[in-house]
Amino acid sequence: MGHITERNGRWRAEVCVDRKRKSKSFGNRDAAEAWASLQEGKVNVSPHANKSVSSLHLSEDEIVGNALPFVRLSGIYFLTHGRNIAYIGKSRHLMRRVAQHNNNGVEFDGYYFILCEESRAAVLEEYYIKKFNPPINVVFRSAAQRAMKPDPQWIDLDELRVSLAK
């Protein structure tokens, strides 16, 4: 995690990514920590992921040497659809959770992770949900509120999720 300091009622986050220092000031500590996590939380991908490489030219050594280790990543994730954030969630196992959304029919065409400790995930998730107000989170939040206060006009979440994705 980057360095967070308070100065004159503002919170300054400083990070070092790829040997370049970045900093930004915020009105509260949570926002500063979320920004720092976002800056540092980029997930590494295979060196061949963005290259046009013929699959016939890769050797077993190249594949094994460039394989990403399968590790349990915890943090928050963003599901994107088009150029919008459709959903924000947290998980102790990010890859598995994103796959579950895909298998359950949630429509998205991209995802992004912010890696962090489980203890920080709830704070970051809440911050970004409030900041971006993604449509699927709004549906789930409304359903949770209705579950606490019974409402005769109950919404079928599966039906609503499908209609939002269109």
Describe this structure in words.
This is GIY-YIG domain-containing protein. Residues 73-142 form the GIY-YIG domain. This protein is α+β, with helices and mostly antiparallel strands. It folds into two domains: 1-40, no CATH class; 68-166, GIY-YIG endonuclease. Helix content is 40%, strand content 25%. It is built from six helices and six strands, in the order E-E-E-H-H-E-E-H-E-H-H-H. The protein has helices spanning 29-40, 60-66, 94-103, 118-132, 135-148, 157-165; strands at residues 3-7, 10-17, 20-26, 75-81, 84-91, 110-115. It has a three-stranded antiparallel sheet, covered by helices on one side. The protein has a three-stranded antiparallel sheet with strand order 5-4-6. A hairpin with a 2-residue loop joins strand 4 (75-81) and strand 5. The longest helix has 15 residues, at 118-132. The model is unreliable at 42-53 and 148-155 (pLDDT under 50).
Produce a short descriptive summary.
The chain has 6 helices and 6 strands; from the N terminus they run βββααββαβααα. By secondary structure, the protein is of the alpha+beta class.
Task: Spell out the blueprint of helices and strands.
Elements: E1 3-7, E2 10-17, E3 20-26, H1 29-40, H2 60-66, E4 75-81, E5 84-91, H3 94-103, E6 110-115, H4 118-132, H5 135-148, H6 157-165
Antiparallel strand pairs: 1-2, 2-3, 4-5, 4-6
| Average predicted confidence as pLDDT | 76
What is the name of the CATH superfamily of the largest domain?
A: GIY-YIG endonuclease
Q: How many structurally independent domains?
A: 2
How many helical stretches? 6
Which secondary-structure class do the elements indicate? alpha+beta
Task: Calculate Rg over CA atoms.
Answer: 19 Å
Please write the CATH class name of the largest domain: Alpha Beta
- Oligomeric form: single chain
Q: What's the count of strands?
A: 6
Second CATH tier, the architecture of the largest domain:
3-Layer(aba) Sandwich
CATH topology of the largest domain: GIY-YIG endonuclease
The 3D shape can be described as globular
The sequence of SSEs as H and E is: EEEHHEEHEHHH
Give the spatial strand order of the biggest sheet: 1-2-3
Low confidence ranges: 42-53, 148-155
